[in-house]
Amino acid sequence: xxxxIGIYRTLxxxxxxxxxxxxxxxxLLLQRGWLARLLRPFFRLISKDWHLFPIGFLFxxxxxxxxxxxxxxxxxxxxxxxxxxxxxxxxxxxxxxxxLVDTADGILMLGAYGWANQDPVRKLIYxxxxxxxxxxxxxxxxxxxxxxLLAGHYSFEGKFWQLIVNLNGNFGKLGxxxxxxxxxxxxxxxxxxxxxxxxxSTHK
Length: 204
Fold this sequence. Notes:
Blueprint: H1 2-15, H2 22-29, H3 34-38, H4 40-43, H5 52-61, H6 64-77, H7 84-87, H8 89-116, H9 120-154, H10 159-168, H11 171-195
């Protein structure tokens, strides 16, 4: 929220005609939350591309999906009717799906950030939009999960609670909506940039 407020205030300065430097925007975007500031020394340890591989590996192990696949594999391996080689289909399918989604996400973000980094004002508008959407998604997802836990624990009934239960049971479809929402956020950034005539600005 701190970064979001800072971006909005800087955008107001741009609309008033004040000059905004690209370095000022980068400095603003680096003012992340307290956890990021606390762990900033550890971020400096990542100095080469290959350093990301072990981090990505540990991140993948933390996925709930990875745990579920392990349980599926153990369950299938316990059956005499299933060969050990057949068990490998679970992690293979998971890896294929993640590769497809992550590649598509990388291409999308490359295009979005490529557009935003061409101009400081574009960077401001894009980060304002994407940060707002990120906060909204985090609140919505966290709220749905929390309400789902309450509904399950206290056995709440009614149309609203049934809707919450259904949403918790279809997080895959909700994920498609989140992806679409981020694509729309990019399009909104372009529309706002042009609607306010900022594409004709000379801020550098």
